[in-house]
Design brief:
This protein is of the alpha/beta class. The protein has helices at residues 15-25, 45-53, 76-85, 151-160, 175-183, 201-204, 230-240, 304-313, 334-345, and strands at residues 8-10, 29-33, 39-44, 91-94, 100-104, 109-111, 121-125, 145-146, 149-150, 166-171, 190-195, 217-221, 224-226, 244-254, 259-262, 268-272, 276-288, 318-323, 328-330. It folds into 2 domains: 3-111, CBS-domain (Roll); 121-345, Spore Coat Polysaccharide Biosynthesis Protein SpsA, Chain A. Helix content is 25%, strand content 28%.
């Protein structure tokens, strides 16, 4: 049994069945989920005791004794904060739809089993990473450490949780360091390397893979880690018949100033104090069909957003899959690098 399953019951469990589950996990708590995996309640041994003392029966539905509004976190960082703020036993982690995707017990995050997608992953790791200067004067950006391992390993391990372990890595700047690092890595990765002789931008390197991939693949820049539900991304991409699906994160930006809208003759039309702007931003992660590479020219530098726009103008179906900003960690700039480290490891290593 996967560890997370010890903490999960079904909404139709009886009190007696719930008691047996609680005995097995030895923590005194059980979370209930519906058929879709959404969190519906939580039950402690104290709840059961109070229910039975008030006249409840062991054969009755456990949900009658449960708390229908349990505390939950939307991401790992929030789970750690909740857990350590109060005397919680376990904090469930849910996605945007309320589906339980993990549990935090004060020591580590336990993940729910994920669907085996078994899709190839193409990682563009050839850029110089000028925004992370001076670190990138010594190391290529993909090898800059975030906690205990470099960013590219965090990215690859996330894909591996979906059984996506076929990696195609496009390299240019300090590529021999990249290859040497993985040649000596104790954790085995199945990597095919593609050398850019000249910089080809965030999209042009894909032409090196023409004819190498036969089906849908992930395409990712090497400066972002995504913890959203990859299965739903793939389902959306395929059911929509997309050529390219761009994964975008909602961002909320609060301006530190009051905003004034002016009409004719200087008349004030509207004033808003410190407004919040919401928008979608490209995470640099895509689902792509291989025929895209047939529309690209060999050896011509191009950004992949320009490829998306080119296909859109041709009338091909390109679309956005939106995710929460909490699901997206970007290390493109030094302040963001530290934020990523804290999300992955907490305040201190």
């Amino acid at each position: 049994m996967n560890e997370i399953e010890k903490f999960l019951g079904r909404t139709d469990d009886t009190v007696a069945e719930a008691m047996r589950r609680i005995d097995r996990n030895e923590t005194g708590i059980l979370f209930f989920t519906d058929e879709a995996g959404r969190l519906t309640g939580c039950l402690t041994d104290g709840d059961i005791r109070r229910f039975l003392l008030s006249g409840g029966k062991l054969e009755e539905p456990a949900m009658r004794a449960a708390n229908p509004h349990p505390r939950a976190a939307g991401n790992d960082e929030e789970a750690r904060a909740l857990y350590h703020k109060k005397n919680y036993i376990v904090i469930p982690i849910v996605d945007a739809e309320g589906v339980v995707v993990g549990l935090y017990n004060g020591e580590e995050i336990d993940r729910a089993p994920r669907t085996a997608l078994k899709m190839p992953v193409v990682i563009n790791a050839g850029g110089k990473g000028t925004r992370l200067d001076p670190f990138t004067r010594v190391l290529p950006k993909p090898l800059i450490p975030v906690g205990e391992m470099p960013i590219i390993e965090h990215i690859m391990r996330e894909y591996q949780t979906y059984a996506c372990d076929e990696f195609h890595v496009i390299v240019n700047y300090r590529r021999e360091l990249m290859k040497a690092y993985f040649a000596e890595n104790e954790h085995h990765y199945r990597i095919t390397w593609y050398d850019e002789e000249e910089p080809l931008g965030t999209g042009g390197g894909l032409t090196l893979l023409r004819g190498k991939l036969q089906g849908t693949f992930f395409f990712a820049n090497c400066d972002a880690l995504l913890t959203a539900n990859y299965e739903r991304m793939v389902q959306f991409h395929r059911e929509s018949g997309n050529l390219i699906t761009m994964v975008c994160a909602y961002r909320n930006l609060t301006l530190p100033y009051g905003v004034v809208e002016m009409g004719s003759n200087g008349r004030i039309e509207r004033m808003t104090e410190k407004p919040t702007m919401s928008f979608l931003t490209n995470t640099g992660i895509y689902l792509v069909e291989p025929e895209v590479m047939e529309d690209m020219e060999d050896g011509v530098p191009i950004g992949f957003p320009d490829v998306v726009e080119m296909e859109r103008k041709k009338g091909r179906r390109v679309a956005v899959f939106p995710v929460s900003e909490n699901d997206w960690m970007d290390m493109g700039q030094l302040p963001e690098l530290e934020k990523m480290r804290k999300k992955l490891y907490g305040e201190a290593l």
